[in-house]
């Protein structure tokens, strides 16, 4: 399924922070976890993850350190900082407001119309 | 670990190639590339487990990584500073190059700073023991430049024999100029007027030393044209960096001076007695170190300046030529005019040399080469006009040491530029290669050293140490 670019961008930060709040991780594992969480329906462009991680690092929300993986390769690990946890809590509140509002919209839609696909109904009303 | 040839399978070769593509993006550092490579390898391993072979897995993994242009654009947005080449003086241990590089750079800086302090102490001792400025001027370079030479001798691991030869050459020169019974002026006069020859020696001995330093810089391979050109580049960058450092130093000193004078503290004695003897050699050595550290990171600035000023200098010379030809006979034909002409030719030579130092020898002749030809031609014409006016009248006033030194330099410069002009002309017309021009430039450089040596060593006795 294709998910709009802006939506991916908006949700990327809370997703990464949330995954890291669970314990330290590294780029590939974070991407894999996102795919798992979305049941494989959300696929990021892998390369874009790293500029995002670097931005979060610069903002002080996460910290990076180089370590050695099991296979002997050098690997950059990320951990969430206290600032990151605070930011995550804030994002969580924001997203729950958005999600609640959306939920009600979906609810109203399915109540008001006889199961027509949402976008078309919306267009009809406009 | 991956360097083992046996392990260099098709996948390794493909990853190598991919890494090469990634590393070509300026916004992506080697650390980022390493991080993404780790990602790629994990992805390939997972896809392998899912049943794909190496080639297929690699293709899918690269595809998922996304368009490199877009990724690199994202990196650039996050790290816009990376688009400006930054000079990392003491690199932190990055995952790729490991810690030794960083430690090496620290040791390097330590050696350099100790040498700078050593040069400062040597200069301070000279200041305490010598009273007149002429002696200071004469001996200063002999005390400072060996420390810079020591740094390069250490860096290049110069053979002991070459070190000994160069050191004794410098020492002999120092002995000669110090043992000569120069006329230093009346010692009872608070501002003595030293003779011509001692000033000429003080002016020319550093040139000889600078060429000796070039031998050290080239690691003993001073016959090599390429090494000579490296030294020319080094000298140009050094001058630029030195000027910048001095400018910064002057601003700091001026500010300190101003604030201290507000509270009635006289900063001057400290500047004279302690700051200058340590700051001057320190600036030289640090500038040299900076030039060495940045040479492969930051674009050379001297050739850029040369390119900017070449058209302007050509215009200036054409204006001079018109003025000289149209104006009346030269009002005062003396050594001032000669020195002025020497300076003009030196500027032209620098412009030429630094443009050449940055030119791709294989590129075909272009508009800039023609501009250079114009520059050289105009300079030669200006000098010829001045020289003819001069030679007519020089006999009337006789030859002094200053006049002969200035005239000699003028002739050497004239030969240098005339032949360079001839070679450039041939190159622009397509009958010669650029390499010939380059080789002439570097090949001629020792002539200046020889002339400087003659002026410093042979002139004083020839002109009775006047």
TrEMBL record, chain A:
Residues in Transcription regulator PadR N-terminal domain copies: 16-90
Superkingdom as given in the UniProt entry: Bacteria
A Pfam family assignment: PadR
PANTHER family from the UniProt entry: PADR-FAMILY TRANSCRIPTIONAL REGULATOR, TRANSCRIPTIONAL REGULATOR RV3488
Name this protein carries in UniProt: PadR family transcriptional regulator
């Amino acid at each position: 399924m294709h998910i709009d670019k802006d939506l991916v961008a908006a949700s990327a930060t809370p997703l990464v922070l949330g995954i890291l709040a669970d314990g330290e991780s590294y780029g590939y594992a974070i991407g894999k976890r996102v795919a798992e969480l979305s049941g494989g329906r959300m696929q990021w462009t892998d390369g874009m993850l790293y500029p995002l991680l670097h931005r979060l690092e610069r903002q002080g929300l996460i910290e990076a350190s180089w370590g050695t993986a099991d296979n002997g390769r050098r690997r950059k690990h990320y951990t969430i900082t206290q600032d990151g946890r605070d930011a995550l809590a804030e994002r969580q509140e924001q997203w729950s407001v958005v999600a609640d509002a959306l939920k009600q919209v979906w609810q109203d839609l399915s109540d008001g119309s006889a199961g027509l696909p949402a976008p078309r109904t919306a267009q009809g009303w406009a | 670990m991956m360097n083992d040839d046996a392990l260099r399978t098709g996948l390794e070769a493909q990853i190598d190639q991919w890494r090469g593509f990634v590393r070509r993006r300026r916004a992506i550092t080697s650390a980022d590339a390493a991080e993404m490579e780790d990602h790629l390898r994990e992805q390939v391993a997972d896809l392998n487990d899912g049943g794909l072979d190496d080639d297929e897995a690699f293709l899918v993994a690269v595809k998922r990584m996304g368009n490199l242009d877009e990724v690199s654009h994202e990196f650039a947005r996050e790290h816009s500073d990376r688009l400006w080449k930054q000079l990392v003086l003491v690199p932190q241990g990055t995952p790729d190059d490991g810690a030794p590089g960083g430690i090496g750079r620290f040791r390097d800086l330590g050696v350099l700073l100790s040498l700078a302090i050593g040069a400062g102490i040597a200069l301070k001792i000279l200041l305490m023991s010598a009273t007149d400025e002429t002696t200071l001027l004469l001996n200063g370079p002999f005390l400072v430049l060996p420390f810079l030479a020591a740094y390069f001798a250490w860096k290049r691991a110069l053979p002991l024999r070459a070190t000994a030869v160069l050191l004794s050459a410098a020492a002999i020169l120092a002995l000669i100029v110090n043992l000569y019974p120069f006329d230093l002026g009346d010692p009872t006069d608070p501002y003595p007027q030293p003779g011509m020859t001692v000033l000429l020696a003080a002016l020319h001995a550093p040139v000889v030393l600078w060429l000796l330093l070039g031998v050290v810089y080239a690691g003993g391979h001073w016959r090599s044209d390429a090494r000579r050109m490296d030294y020319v580049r080094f000298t140009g960058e050094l001058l630029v960096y030195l000027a910048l450092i001095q400018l910064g130093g002057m601003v700091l000193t001026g500010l300190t001076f101003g604030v201290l004078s507000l509270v009635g503290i006289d900063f001057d004695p400290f500047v004279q007695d302690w700051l200058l003897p340590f700051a001057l050699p320190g600036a030289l050595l640090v500038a040299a170190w900076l030039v060495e550290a940045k040479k492969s990171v930051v674009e050379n600035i001297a050739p850029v300046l040369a390119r900017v000023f070449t058209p302007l200098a050509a215009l200036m010379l054409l204006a001079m030529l018109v003025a000289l030809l149209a104006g009346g006979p030269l009002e005062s034909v003396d050594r001032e005019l000669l020195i002025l002409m020497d300076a003009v030719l030196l500027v032209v030579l620098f412009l030429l040399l630094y443009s050449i130092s940055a030119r791709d020898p294989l590129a075909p002749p272009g508009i800039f080469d023609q501009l250079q030809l114009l520059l050289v031609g105009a300079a030669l014409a200006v000098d010829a006009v001045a020289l003819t006016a001069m030679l007519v009248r020089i006999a009337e006033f006789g030859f002094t040491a200053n006049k002969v030194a200035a005239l000699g330099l003028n002739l050497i410069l004239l030969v240098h530029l005339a032949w360079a002009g001839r070679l450039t002309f041939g190159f622009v017309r397509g009958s010669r290669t650029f390499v010939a021009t380059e080789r002439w430039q570097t090949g001629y450089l020792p002539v200046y050293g020889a002339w400087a040596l003659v002026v410093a060593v042979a002139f004083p006795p020839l002109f009775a140490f006047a």
